[in-house]
């Protein structure tokens, strides 16, 4: 593992699923590897999103990432649409990707059901753009949650197709999966935590104390639900206490109310310093804009090199 790349869509609030499944890893990995992280604003266009909202969400997302510990001195942070090359490489990859591979993507099927009046071509070719994002930087490792594994598998297929057709040029990028590969919903314990299942199903990074406490109080506590809460506790709380509670749960002695109280406390302890940093960056937006501009410049240098070589290889130059 040496060059790492990953991204997140600016389609709303960051939640604990994003954090535990991917962003926590991003922060840890920047200490050891060359990392590029980006805000996938072109991908956000596959849903109907108001232009001002998209702009605001992108900046808020940058603020959230910096507040969580992404350090522009260690990792390159940029906005996808600021770098020329993503869509150009995606077009070249489009011409190598069988439509049948795209039609079998679970996310395409799910998203098409969610927005039946807007099954646009971008929704279908979304994973091709994702492959281009990664391979534009010839990244080898991609820290993501479990829901992105199928897209990554397609990125490897696309890299292989390119290498076979032209010349061995792209690495086949591998996922880096965190222990919290699939964080579950508070409201629907069998589903993953996601923005699309309503406010009550997730804890957002920017939720205030009252909201966090209420959401956890209302969390479903069937058997799976309790296990999910215990798992969440294991990430934010005290491990010894977690083991004790797990044993109590197994012997039917665990009080759900006290688990919820402890969990809310542990999550709030994590959120407090992050939210303080969010307030700081919200008051210093020009700094954030500059970080994104500088990041885009860095990313563009790599992108330009790749595109010059790719164009040569495919005969566009
Ligand atoms: P996005 O924006 O949906 O999610 C960002 C990251 O959060 C992870 N994640 C979760 N992990 C565990 N449990 C959950 N409940 C949970 N919910 C979300 C996701 O797996 C992801 O790692 N297609 C990508 C964005 C993208 C990208 C890329 C990623 C575009 N190009 C290139 C990597 C490389 C997406 O929609 O992530």
UniProtKB/TrEMBL annotation:
This is Tryptophan--tRNA ligase. A motif ('HIGH' region) lies at residues 10-18. One of its GO terms (molecular function) is ATP binding. L-tryptophan binds at residue 133. One of its GO terms (cellular component) is cytoplasm. It catalyses: tRNA(Trp) + L-tryptophan + ATP = L-tryptophyl-tRNA(Trp) + AMP + diphosphate + H(+). ATP binds at residues 9-11, 17-18, 145-147, 183, 192-196.
